[in-house]
């Protein structure tokens, strides 16, 4: 057995299982947590199958897909062929996990097989499983196990917080045994006829704290898989994919199917139930403002319902007052929403965390683009107070009026960087030195410019407020003039990555310049220079544009934001190149990304390593990337918008 994890995702639920379908109970580290997770909590921490007291061998290990299927046999040798074969199938639903087991005898005589599944639920918060190895005190927390007629129930309680996981089986186990570790072992003694077969179905229902919905666990993995396939089909149906570029068509279809499985529940300003794109699995299966907004923008021409849900969901979580721990300020759009125990008790700041300088302008960009594309005037009127509050934040707390730019400061309890490159050290000079003091990131200024212009259009055409529209247009024009004066580096004919707290240029050559093309912030002459520069070999790896150009001291091909290749970053760049009429360059980036997707089963991961195609004929994976990520899933749709079927 290897330590690989295979992800099964459905809405706000995911499971990470090994090659043989087991959950080992590993506490964390690495690229994927191990277990069944619902609303940021691990509801199965152990799920281990044994045959006659031993872990079977994976004859046909789990392959990637929406259902985990594998074939197992008891361990043995050539002179001792296995007495039976086990066919294991697993799937996840909304708060549920279902497994079917078929045991077939390979002997011509009656055979007895002792089957057992060891289960446990530790209810660990997902933040405890991160590789930073932080620990959190949980005073008064208790766990209970209750034996049921057909299984076992695990319960966790800490003050008012209560979670539950119920495991049931059909047929019921012959017994439920204690293991000495807190886990419980469900045991069956199967009497198999010559070459006979026995079947078992195990169902797991997770009830996270605060979830009062009446739900039923589906009857089988096949039933769950059919439901997910139907949902995926709805997302793909009716879209005209390019017939002359089948690889792009396949990437679009795969991306839409992934977006279908990444929809998580949210509520709107009036309490209405919504489904919005989660950021990605495994670590970010929740609403992240920036991620949901960019995903919805990419998908807007094809699936506008994503934007129609994302906008009111973010309006409902918009900050109305100042909060130091959450970095909240009136009018600011949320960065991250979490539902776990640690967020509930304030041990992490991410229950509603506002550490993003760019979610607020992107909210306005999406609102303007959505109204322009759909003509949905009622939503534009309904969200007018939220949009005006967002503009107010940009001008006041955001820094446009006082500093001339959107500004963020490192948050000691949360994120040091609050633009899309949010890892420590991501905003740096060419020599790798980190920017100090309040930071003015280039890309965020482009989003602010676009937000001002689009909101001016909505104000004039929908809200009928000409004075407000004119004020916003003037603010946008002033921002554009300031930016080209302060950020442009004449000696490098390229914009700085940021300005530091003293207003000095942070001079790393970075892909964020392509976002300025997407937002239209640069004059045509500057835009064309930037666009062509992004296609030079130090930037363009052959699979996409690197986050930092190679050859700089700060560059590292396996750094999260200092040399890697991000599909969503490249989707924005491609849209920007097309906007400035650089169609050959746009096609080059699009073909690189589509080739990368083709090499990885038509699915683009969150991020790729920055190694060049001329020395590595296959894209090199980034070791800790989200396998399913909403922005990457939607990126092929942005490529389709930018270059069509070329």
UniProtKB/TrEMBL annotation:
<dbReference type="InterPro" id="IPR054491">
    <property type="entry name" value="MGH1-like_GH"/>
</dbReference>
<dbReference type="Pfam" id="PF14742">
    <property type="entry name" value="GDE_N_bis"/>
</dbReference>
<dbReference type="InterPro" id="IPR032856">
    <property type="entry name" value="GDE_N_bis"/>
</dbReference>
<dbReference type="InterPro" id="IPR012341">
    <property type="entry name" value="6hp_glycosidase-like_sf"/>
</dbReference>
<feature type="domain" description="Mannosylglycerate hydrolase MGH1-like glycoside hydrolase">
    <location>
        <begin position="435"/>
        <end position="600"/>
    </location>
</feature>
<feature type="domain" description="Putative glycogen debranching enzyme N-terminal">
    <location>
        <begin position="8"/>
        <end position="203"/>
    </location>
</feature>
<dbReference type="GO" id="GO:0005975">
    <property type="term" value="P:carbohydrate metabolic process"/>
</dbReference>
<dbReference type="InterPro" id="IPR008928">
    <property type="entry name" value="6-hairpin_glycosidase_sf"/>
</dbReference>
<protein>
    <submittedName>
        <fullName>Glycogen debranching enzyme</fullName>
    </submittedName>
</protein>
<dbReference type="Pfam" id="PF22422">
    <property type="entry name" value="MGH1-like_GH"/>
</dbReference>
């Amino acid at each position: 057995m290897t330590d690989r994890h295979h992800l099964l995702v459905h809405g706000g639920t995911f499971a990470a299982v090994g090659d043989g379908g087991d959950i080992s109970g590993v506490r964390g580290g690495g690229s994927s947590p191990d277990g069944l997770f619902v609303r940021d909590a691990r509801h199965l921490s152990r799920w281990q199958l044994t045959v006659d007291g031993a872990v079977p061998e994976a004859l046909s290990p789990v392959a990637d897909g929406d259902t985990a299927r594998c074939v197992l046999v008891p361990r043995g040798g050539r002179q001792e062929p296995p007495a039976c074969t086990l066919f294991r199938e697993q799937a996840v639903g909304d708060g549920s996990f279902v497994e079917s087991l078929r045991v077939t005898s390979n002997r011509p005589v009656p055979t007895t097989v002792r089957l057992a599944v060891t289960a446990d639920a530790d209810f660990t918060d997902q933040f405890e499983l991160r590789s930073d190895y932080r620990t959190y005190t949980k005073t008064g927390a208790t766990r209970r196990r209750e034996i049921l007629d057909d299984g076992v129930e695990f319960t966790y309680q800490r003050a008012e917080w209560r979670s539950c996981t119920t495991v049931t089986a059909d047929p019921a186990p012959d017994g439920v045994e204690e293991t000495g570790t807190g886990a419980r072992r469900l045991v069956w003694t199967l009497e198999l006829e010559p070459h006979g077969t026995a079947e078992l179905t195990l169902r797991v229902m997770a009830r996270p704290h605060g979830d009062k919905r009446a739900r039923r666990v589906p009857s089988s993995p096949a039933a769950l898989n059919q439901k997910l396939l139907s949902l995926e089909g709805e997302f793909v149906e009716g879209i005209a994919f390019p017939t002359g570029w089948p690889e792009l068509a396949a990437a679009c279809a795969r991306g839409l199917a992934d977006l279908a499985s990444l929809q998580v529940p949210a509520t709107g300003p009036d309490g209405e139930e919504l489904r919005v794109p989660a950021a990605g699995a495994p670590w970010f299966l929740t609403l992240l403002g920036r991620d949901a907004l960019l995903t919805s923008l990419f998908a807007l021409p094809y699936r506008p319902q994503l934007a129609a849900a994302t906008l009111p969901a973010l309006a409902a979580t918009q900050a109305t007052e100042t909060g130091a721990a959450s970095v909240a300020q009136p009018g600011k759009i949320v960065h991250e929403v979490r539902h776990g125990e640690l967020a509930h008790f304030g041990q992490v700041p991410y229950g509603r965390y506002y550490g993003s300088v760019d979610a607020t302008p992107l909210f306005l960009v999406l609102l303007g683009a959505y109204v322009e594309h759909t003509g949905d005037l009622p939503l534009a009127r309904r969200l007018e107070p939220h949009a005006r509050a967002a503009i107010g934040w940009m001008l006041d707390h955001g820094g446009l009026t006082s500093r001339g730019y959107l500004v963020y400061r490192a948050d000691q309890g949360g994120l040091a960087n609050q633009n899309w490159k949010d890892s420590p050290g991501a905003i740096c000079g060419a020599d790798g030195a980190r920017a100090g003091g309040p930071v003015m990131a280039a890309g965020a200024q482009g989003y602010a410019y676009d937000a001002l212009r689009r909101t001016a259009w909505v104000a004039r055409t929908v809200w009928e407020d000409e004075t407000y529209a004119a004020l916003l247009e003037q603010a946008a024009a002033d921002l554009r003039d300031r930016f080209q004066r302060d950020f442009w580096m004449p000696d490098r004919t390229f914009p700085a990555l940021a300005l530091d707290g003293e207003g000095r240029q942070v001079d790393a050559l970075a892909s964020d310049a392509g976002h300025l093309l997407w937002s239209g912030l640069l004059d045509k002459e500057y835009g064309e220079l930037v666009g062509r520069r992004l296609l030079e070999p130090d930037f363009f790896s052959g699979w996409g544009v690197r986050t930092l150009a190679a050859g700089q001291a700060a560059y590292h091909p396996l750094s999260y934001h200092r040399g890697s290749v991000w599909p969503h970053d490249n989707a924005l760049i491609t849209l920007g190149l097309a906007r400035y009429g650089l169609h050959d360059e746009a096609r080059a980036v699009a073909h690189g990304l589509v080739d990368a997707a083709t090499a990885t089963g038509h699915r683009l991961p969150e991020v790729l390593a920055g190694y060049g195609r001329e020395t590595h004929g296959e894209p090199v994976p980034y070791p800790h990337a989200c396998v399913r990520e909403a922005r990457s899933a939607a990126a092929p749709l942005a490529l389709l918008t930018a270059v069509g079927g070329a």
